[in-house]
Design brief:
By secondary structure, the chain is of the alpha/beta class. It is 49% helix and 12% strand.
Length: 311
């Protein structure tokens, strides 16, 4: 289980591993480390980014929801992105989370991410305001028009309030810079329809569904569990791509307790508890989130242990 990335995949040819996967296949949405006083920990961010890439991640999402983007300032996000790019930008794709429910603000964040050097943009569905499908189309198109960077759409209706419907995804797929979808909708039929009729690269946005998504044509995962289990998730993807469904299924089942632990609490709370217990950069969460209690941390240890993660 402590295999290195080159051992866990049948991808000696890196180009073949990445084929069809514009941001790589194993991507983790990285937490944002804070110091004990709640301030941004840039040294910790560099250390954690290097650790995650060493563990087998092809890419990292910076300042996604797991990175506590709602409670980090624009300046903090720019500093964080610059630090991670300086540390691992030559070894992994660094994707900036820039989505908000304000199109003008999103465009500003996208342009700033491009100026800092991001390799791509993750743009979540505008949340809470529940735009129409035409509103979503215009919002995402405006973001894709704003920079030269490739865009991954993030479809997560249980948080955003609205889905990106199949017809809208097909329209957006015609834009040359809209290249991928992170799906946390979990509708494999809808996703299969889009995959079959567009060139969009689909990524699972829900760790337990990564293997089912691969079976219908997805290319990888944007993971939370990758903080603690990247080598085995990567191995599962590699096994499936190599035609070894039995091995992929075994790894999928082995990892289920890990995923359950990550989602036992809002993901960033569980992940920061894990990082802190592992001696990796994490620190506290920012309000309105609150840190795991001792009792919750003990329960998390049980989940992680059942999934083969020793804390």
């Amino acid at each position: 289980m402590a295999q290195t990335p080159t051992q866990v995949v049948s991808d000696a040819d890196a180009a073949a591993w990445r084929a069809g996967a514009p941001f790589g296949r194993m991507i983790t949405a990285m937490i944002t480390p804070f110091k004990a006083d709640g301030s941004l920990d840039l040294d910790g961010a560099r250390e954690l980014a290097a650790h995650l890439v060493d563990a087998g991640n092809d890419g990292l999402v910076i300042s996604g929801t797991t990175g506590e983007s709602p409670t980090t300032s624009d300046a903090e996000q720019a500093d964080l992105l610059a630090a991670v790019l300086a540390e691992v930008g030559g070894r992994a794709r660094v994707i900036a989370g820039v989505g908000t429910n304000d199109t003008a603000h999103t465009l500003e964040l996208a342009r700033r991410a491009e100026a800092v050097g991001a390799h791509g943009l993750l743009v979540v569905t505008p949340y809470y305001s529940k735009p129409t499908q035409e509103g979503l189309f215009r919002h995402f198109t405006a973001v894709a028009d704003a920079t030269a960077l490739p865009v991954m759409l993030y479809d997560i209706p249980h948080r955003a309030g609205v889905p990106i419907e199949v017809a809208t995804l097909m329209r957006l797929a015609e834009h040359p810079r809209v290249v991928a979808v992170k799906d946390a909708k979990g509708d494999l039929v809808a996703g299969s329809t889009v995959i079959a009729n567009t060139d969009l690269a689909y990524y699972s946005g829900d760790d337990p569904l990564t293997l089912p998504w691969l079976s219908v044509g997805a290319v990888g995962v944007v993971s939370m569990s990758g903080h603690v289990a990247a080598p085995r998730i990567r191995a599962m993807i590699a096994a499936y791509l190599a035609g070894n469904a039995a091995e992929a299924t075994a790894l999928h089942q082995e990892l289920l307790p890990v995923h359950a632990g990550v989602t036992m609490l809002p993901g960033v709370i569980s992940l920061k508890a894990a990082m802190n217990m592992l001696g990796l950069p994490g620190g506290p969460v920012r309000l309105p989130l609150v840190d795991a209690t001792e009792e919750q941390a003990a329960q998390l240890k049980t989940y992680y242990a059942a999934g083969g993660v020793k804390i």
